Amino acid sequence: MSVSTIPQGLIVKAEQIPYPMELSSSEIYIHLSSLNEYKTDFIKDLIEKSRKHKPITKLINQQPNMPPQMTRHNLITFLFQLSTVCNVTDTVFSHAVTLYDRYSSKRIVLPEQSKLVVATCLWLSAKNLGGCDHIINEYVIPTGGRFYGPTPRARIPKINELIYYCGGKKHFNKSMFLQMERHILQTLDWNIVTPTLADLVLNIDENCLLQYEWYKRALLPNKN
User: What stretches of 27-164 adopt beta strand conformation (E)?
Assistant: First the structure.
């Protein structure tokens, strides 16, 4: 289950400018101060949702056509490759894995549909986590596409991309992706907003460090 390189089509190069470091840091700290009063409640809610939406490993292991011992490595590898060529963030990838595990805890997955299922999970994950679907967003860029920082958002993969990487139109089409999206949402009772690893481990200092790294890269001279 490998992903080949898609031919380059329209390439739009948008000129971006660094987001002011001082303004970014101020925004992050003000946000933290505003939410600090409810920190305990937020953590409790994250833990409760994590437990509620935890995949059931016992049921996943009972998949008749997709036993994880024999198929999971290749399928998750394909999903990782797909997330790489589609230029989504690591958080989108990890959330897509969670969605797939939750779905396969409740539904039988057929081998011929496995790529369709995980690709749709990636598509749902990118949209759920606030992706940016602008024409200039060929790569991961911040909301609006004008500034670097403070928060990078993942681009939302196009259906045509997902069809291409999943084997082309001889295997899947747009209608199949839309049907699978609806099926996954109904299976999960439309509860796809689940805590990610970033929600539990990222703190204010790490967010500031991320912004600093973006700022530093933006100031580097263009070597091309």
Answer: 141-142, 147-148, 152-153
In angstroms, the CA 33 to CA 107 distance is: 43
**Which residue, 171, 156, 150, 191, is CA-closest to 53?**
191
What Rg value do the Cα atoms of the chain yield, rounded? 19
Q: What is the pLDDT of residues 168-215, one digit of tens each?
A: 989 999 999 999 999 999 999 998 888 776 666 665 555 566 666 666
Q: Angle of helix 174-187 relative to helix 90-104, nearest 10 degrees?
A: 70
CA 212 – CA 207 distance, rounded (Å)? 9
Distance of alpha carbon 96 from its chain centroid, rounded?
Answer: 6
| CA atoms within 13 Å, Cβ hemisphere of 31 | 13
State the pTM of this model. 0.71
d(CA 77, CA 1) in angstroms, rounded, equals 8
* Residue for token pair 């897509």: 96
- Residue 78's alpha-carbon distances to 17, 106, 152, in angstroms, are 35, 22, 24
Q: Which of 126, 73, 82, 125 is nearest to 102 (CA)?
A: 125
Under a CB-based contact definition with an 8 Å cutoff, are residues 18 and 215 in contact? yes
At residue 22's C-alpha, the angle toward residues 21 and 25, to 5°, is 85
